[in-house]
Amino acid sequence: MELEAEYLDRRYWPQNLDYNTFLEWFDIAIHSVVIDPFEDDIEKEPY
Question: Is residue 18 predicted with pLDDT exceeding 90?
């Protein structure tokens, strides 16, 4: 989602989309908001 928000042309994306590349490109911060990029329903396990 972050790459698509900044670079629509995928030629500018990194070749390798693994976790190490993710860490090189982005900073990680913990927030109270959760964004679900998928259209499927969220499945919750009973507890």
Answer: yes
pTM of the prediction?
Answer: 0.49
CA end-to-end distance (rounded Å), the chain: 31
Under 8 Å between Cβ of 15 and 3: no
Count of CB atoms within 10 A of residue 26's CB? 10
**Which tokens belong to 7?**
């670079």
Contacts of 13 by beta carbon, 8 Å cutoff, 6+ apart: 3, 7
Structure tokens at 10: 């995928």
